[in-house]
Amino acid sequence: GDNNADGLVHAAIEDLGNGTFRVGFEDTAGGGDFDYDDVNLVISANATVEIDTDADGLWDSGDLCPLDDRNDNDGDGLCESSDNCNAYPNADQTDADADGIGDPCDPAMFISEAIPGIAGQMNVWSISGASPLAPLEIYRGKAKGVLPVTSCPGLYLGLSRPQLLATPTADMAGNAILSKWLGGTASGTKETVQVLDRVNCTVSQVQITVIQ
């Protein structure tokens, strides 16, 4: 067409069939030869428009996880958003204790809720699954958080502003206890605790008890 009113046609469209068209542009400087092949643009009506929904640099058509920009970091065929263990491959998603954490990511060491969980009484937490005779550190936090354990690269305490409560030693079966008096003002508060085995670089889950 001619959009600058100079009387010259600067582009032509050719139907190549099958929904495909060639748009040829003519360089008319100095007159041109009007064969409309100086610049060619081929457009297909059947072309596929590629999108990258999760903005991870992969087109959706070739993205295993088009809605999850973390994709499948551990290579087990599951998107991170639906994988119950992101640190280790676990395609079977086994979760023996049904806590929502896949077995490879589930700490072997476990700390129970406070028993009886009542203010104005002595309360006891039971620890199991520790290494035999391991020196343990039991921490209390204000809430859940992420705090690196300096002597154990890649290991984190899941507590905010942790305070050391006790340092028991596990018995030969890997068990230990924490006994703590909770005053009457503790009613309605949360006791948030976690166990660290600094020697073997393992931690328990974060346990939260609502005190009655």
N-to-C span: 82 Å
Helical percent range?
Answer: under 10%
Structural class: mainly beta
Shape: elongated
Number of helical runs? 0
- Model regions low in confidence, pLDDT < 50 over at least 5 residues: none
In sequence order, what are the helices and strands, one letter per element? EEEEEEEEEEEEE
Main β sheet profile = 5 strands, antiparallel
Proportion in β-strands: 25-35%
Q: How much is the average pLDDT?
A: 83
Radius of gyration: 33 Å
Count the strands? 13
Description:
The chain has 212 residues and is mainly beta. It is 0% helix and 33% strand. The chain has no helices and 13 strands. The protein is elongated and about 95 Å long. The mean pLDDT is 83.
Task: Report a brief summary of the structure.
This protein is mostly beta strands and 212 residues long. The protein has strands at residues 11-17, 20-25, 39-44, 110-111, 121-128, 137-141, 143-148, 156-160, 163-166, 176-182, 190-197, 202-203, 207-210. It has no helices and 13 strands.
What brief labels describe this structure?
5-stranded antiparallel beta sheet; mainly beta; 13 strands; 0% helix; 212 residues; elongated; single chain; 3-stranded antiparallel beta sheet
Lay out the secondary structure:
Elements: E1 11-17, E2 20-25, E3 39-44, E4 110-111, E5 121-128, E6 137-141, E7 143-148, E8 156-160, E9 163-166, E10 176-182, E11 190-197, E12 202-203, E13 207-210
Antiparallel strand pairs: 1-2, 2-3, 4-5, 5-10, 6-9, 6-11, 7-8, 11-12, 11-13
